[in-house]
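Researcher: Next entry in the queue.
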Amino acid sequence: PEEQMREYKRSIDKTIRELERERTKMQNQEKKLVAEMRKMAKSNQTESLRIMAKDLVRTRASCTQFYKMKAQMQAVSLRLQTLNSTAAMAKAMQGVTKSMKMMNAKMNIP
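Model: Structure for this entry, 110 residues:
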């Protein structure tokens, strides 16, 4: 189970990194698009500008989606970590109860 948890964590972290890379690419693309839109605006090409503006809106929406997906993946990772620590706590408590039983048995010997 511990190896499996490590593997899940590794997989989730990898997915988060990939999402970050894609979001960064989208933001760079957005910057280029804005610069190109400024050039188009100076040369009064309104039709092209309108199409680029729609693309810009789509790009920004995609960036927002990437933020949401990253947050969801981090939430899943946190849940897995919580689950793992809860299991470790339960295992530790088992050891404590065993030792308390043994101490109790030794105390009641008179």
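Model: The chain has a mean pLDDT of 92.
Researcher: Noted, moving on.
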